[in-house]
Design goal:
- The chain is of the alpha+beta class and 601 residues long.
- It has a domain at 333-559: Dipeptide-binding Protein, Domain 3 (Dipeptide-binding Protein, domain 3, Roll), CATH 3.10.105.
- It contains 18 helices and 23 strands.
- The strands form seven sheets. Strands 1-5-6-8-7 form a five-stranded antiparallel beta sheet. The protein has a five-stranded mixed beta sheet with strand order 19-18-20-14-21. A four-stranded mixed beta sheet has the order 2-11-10-9, with no helix packed on it.
- A hairpin with a 6-residue loop joins strand 7 (158-163) and strand 8 (170-175).
Length: 601
């Protein structure tokens, strides 16, 4: 057995949809960026004290707060303060380090990973974190009736977990075959308390073999009943169930108003790795962007992502008069247009390439985004990673090329009404569709620019905006034609399986565009199973070329974020690792604190 400490590759794996307005290097804002921070600020914790509240604006409520069943960025951010992983990733070096457990012992054949849990690790109710909690959490992920499709695919390689050597603090994972992502998968998932969510030990009766065969699982009524409980809103909203080992406690969730977390005064890891300075962290839901900006100016909100570039660069040109600091950190994410492959309009790759030629990325970045975006061509987009296929040329804005491609695909205006049409399944079909989007003014503005361009080549498109939770539900159920969205990108080695493998188009998997391609699947599977890094690099580059040729997404840009925060806060830092920023690190000098522990809501 050997103990290892690994360094994460600076690469991209997309894990959760995020509400983002895009970013990048700008030319118009340089006259007013005196207080803008583009790089990681120095640590500023000398004299740090506990206290004050930190109120953060959110555009919408989270979907659910059970980390096993939630997959939206807002929920992921909030739950990161409540729950913890076995390991943690250093936010500056990207190295994996101990958190709830020590670095694992790995067998010579790379099939067994054994973690020893820190004897001091405690849930917020004072109960110890044990191997039984880890085994239980893995079972939740594995139970096929639990809404954990986005997470479950990463654990397909995991055969089982069990208490090792009769030691309640030692857990052993067994893999079906060696997998180079093993340590990331096993070390970086939220651990839930068995004594809270399964006090009757119902899951003890569920066997690992049952999770593999849906027909067998369907015969287990107790499993289905228990899954309904875990999937329920009750488990995702009530404090008695949202018990974790993290630095903050769940206090309340007021629908439409936000989520409040309160500092865990007995946090076990406070002296080890994770500070928790603010007395409360409040995620305040304000859907209207203008109202949110007014709230920040009136000191009713302490920190927020500024959606509209014009607000950031014009309305907040002199942010200091409102005691606000502006920050422009790199945002590890990318935006894209997605074409639902279930819709006959988008099943021809010539059509998808033509659509890509109808997006004037450079003009949109300059005029709408104030320069805050860098065009990308691929799911892997970090410029400093050897995994990037840098040979993929940018797809230029070229309406004439698009017209030729549409014509080659059989789309012509046969009736002179100005709209392209084609006979599909024996019926004349006009090229008309709707872009689905969440209520984000910048996205709407961008989509309207694209809609106007499409109109000039004979395509009629509209924009429909939905509240975030409704939008997520529609996309998960494939109930859309096209959409504009974004994926965040943690700094762990990329695994395209979640978003791009055909199997993930079923249920609520993240391949919500239903992209099916056998060569795509074979490349992803080969990449997942290849232990030789040099061969993996070749496979991931070949895969990027395939996606580029097929154009199931029109890749848009990687943004810079736009934040403002109250200048009373110290140690405000942004990282490439999500969630970022980590608000538990922010603090306020005692003499500048605005709220006290006794102040009413």
């Amino acid at each position: 057995m050997n103990k290892i400490k690994l360094t994460a590759l600076i690469a991209v794996m997309i894990f959760s949809i995020i509400i983002t307005a895009c970013g990048g290097k700008t030319t118009q804002q340089n006259t007013n960026n005196k207080q803008q921070s583009n790089d990681l600020s120095p640590v500023d914790t000398a004299g740090a004290v506990v206290g004050d509240w930190l109120i953060i604006r959110e555009m919408s409520d989270p979907e659910k707060l059970n980390p096993i069943v939630s997959n939206d960025a807002s929920a992921s951010e909030i739950t990161s303060y409540i729950f913890e992983y076995l390991l943690t990733q250093n936010k500056e070096t990207y190295e994996l380090e101990p958190l709830l457990a020590n670095m694992p012992e790995i067998s010579a054949d790379n099939l067994n990973y054994t973690f020893t849990i820190n004897k001091n690790a405690r849930f917020s109710d004072g109960k110890p974190v044990t191997a039984a909690d880890v085994v239980f959490t893995l079972k939740l992920i594995k139970i096929p009736f639990i809404d954990a499709a986005a997470t479950r695919n990463y654990f397909e390689m995991v055969e089982k977990a069990e208490i090792a050597d009769g030691d309640p603090l030692k857990v052993k994972f067994t893999l079906t075959k060696p997998n180079w992502r093993g340590i990331y998968t096993l070390g970086l998932f939220s651990i839930l308390p068995k004594h809270v969510l399964d006090p009757q030990n119902v899951t003890d009766n569920f066997q690992w073999e049952e999770f593999k065969d849906m027909n067998v699982a369907r015969n287990n009524g107790a499993m289905q009943k228990y899954a309904d409980f875990i999937n329920s809103q009750e488990v995702s909203r009530e404090a008695k169930y949202l018990v974790g080992s993290g630095p903050y406690l769940f206090e309340k969730w007021d629908t439409g108003a936000g989520v409040t977390l309160v500092r865990n005064p007995n946090y076990w890891g406070g002296s080890v790795t994770t500070p928790n300075y603010p007395q409360k962290i409040i995620f305040k839901t304000i859907q209207d962007n203008s109202a949110a900006l007014v709230s920040a100016k009136n000191k009713e909100v302490d920190a927020m992502y500024v959606i509209k570039p014009s607000d950031f660069y014009k309305d907040l040109e002199n942010a200091d008069q409102f005691s606000l600091v502006k920050a422009r950190p790199f945002e590890p994410a990318y935006t894209y247009l997605a074409w639902n492959q279930l819709n006959p309009l988008f099943q021809d790759k010539k059509v998808r390439l033509a659509l890509a030629h109808m997006v004037d990325r450079k003009s949109i970045i300059e005029k709408v985004m104030y320069g805050d975006g860098v065009p990308i061509q691929s799911h892997v987009f970090y410029k400093n990673t050897k995994l990037l296929n840098a040979e993929l040329p940018e797809i230029p804005f070229d309406p004439e090329k698009a017209k030729k491609l549409f014509e080659e695909a059989g789309w012509k205006d046969t009736d002179g009404d100005g709209i392209l049409d084609k006979v599909i399944n024996g019926k004349k079909t006009d090229f008309k569709f709707t872009f689905l989007s969440n209520t984000n003014p910048v996205r709407k503005q961008i989509l309207l620019v694209i809609v106007d361009a499409l109109k000039k080549v004979g395509i009629q498109a509209e924009v429909q905006e939905l509240e975030w939770s409704v939008y997520l539900d529609k996309t998960k159920k494939h109930e859309f034609e096209a959409t504009y969205s974004a994926w965040t990108s943690p700094t762990t080695p990329p695994d395209p399986f979640q978003i791009w493998h055909s199997s993930q188009s079923q249920g609520e998997g993240s391949n919500y565009i239903s992209f099916h391609n056998k060569y795509n699947d074979s490349l992803i599977e080969a990449y997942r199973n290849e232990m030789d890094e040099s061969k993996r690099i070749l496979l991931i580059k070949e895969w990027q070329k395939l996606i580029y040729d097929e154009q199931p997404y029109t890749f848009l840009w990687s943004p810079r974020a736009r934040y403002i925060f109250d200048k009373r806060f110290k140690n405000a830092r942004w990282y490439n690792i999500q969630p970022s920023p980590t608000y538990n690190e922010w603090w306020v000098p005692a003499g500048s604190q605005k709220y006290t522990q006794n102040k009413n809501n």
